[in-house]
Amino acid sequence: MSDDSNGVLAGPDGAGLRFAHLPHRPTAVALLLHGGSATSTTSPGWRSAPVVRMVPIARSIGRRVPDVAVARLKHAVGGWNASGGSALRDVDWALDILRTRFPGLPLVLVGHSMGGRTAVHLASADRVVGAVLLTPWLPDSDPVGSVAGRTLVVLQAKWDHTCPIPQTEAWLTRAASAGAVIDREILSCSDHAMLLRFPTWHRLAARGVRRVLAESSASW
Fold it and tell me: What is the pTM for the complete model shown?
């Protein structure tokens, strides 16, 4: 791992971690996970659309929940690629860094699209207390055991044609049955990319982080 001149922590496989907000004495940490595609071995850049899309969300969380440190992960490759192995390794790497830098603090995952899928797979990782899922990709075939006892704030768009709401229903139902606490909101007149009504997305993402931390505070 190395730290370049732009403040990016570089992982051994091409992933990167960049802090968006660092309070003097943080009480929690939010890790933002960008979207991707079903299959792609191309490395996304920091200026690629899925990565840039998380920038204003990171700023909103830092502004509205100022005692929470905020970091953005850039994946080594831009696709899930059958098993999600690369994406999950990247998040594990980032979580290890955050646990070392902020020992004992709760971690909240904030994932858009593929990032939402990655977040729920790692919701049971050490110190992770829940996740905020933004227009998430949630195939029915994915397991739900990792979300038992975790709070999931799920924000979806009525006009989402990439990850349509009906395609997430079965997974969410199973997750609730497995013991996840689900706080769900569907935004009308909005889309998968969260560009329509973007101020609302930014505000609700920050509120979601607060909600996850509030729900989990008893165990911390």
Answer: 0.95
Q: Are 122 and 88 in contact (CB under 8 A)?
A: yes
Count of CB atoms within 10 A of residue 184's CB? Answer: 14
Please tell me the distance from the alpha carbon of residue 197 to that of residue 1, in angstroms, as a whole number: 38
Contacts of 38 (CB under 8 A, 6+ apart): 79, 80, 81
Which tens digit of pLDDT belongs to each residue from 129-184?
999 999 999 999 999 999 999 999 999 999 999 999 999 999 999 999 999 999 99
CA 208 vs. chain centroid, Å, equals 11
Q: How many CB atoms lie within 10 A of CB 175?
A: 26
Give how far Cα 149 sits from Cα of 53, 113, 177, 180, Å: 29, 22, 11, 5
Domains of the chain: 2-106+114-219 (3.40.50.1820)
* Eight-state DSSP code of residue 93: H
| Structure confidence at residue 220 as a pLDDT band (50, 70, 90) | low
Pair of tokens at residue 50: 């899925």
Question: Where are the alpha helices (H) located in the chain, listed in sequence order?
Answer: 49-52, 55-64, 85-101, 114-121, 169-177, 198-216
Burial of 101 (0-12, 13-18, 19+ CB in 10 A): middle
Per-position DSSP letters for 42-81, written without gaps between them? PPPPTTSHHHHTTHHHHHHHHHHSTTEEEEEEE-SSSB-T
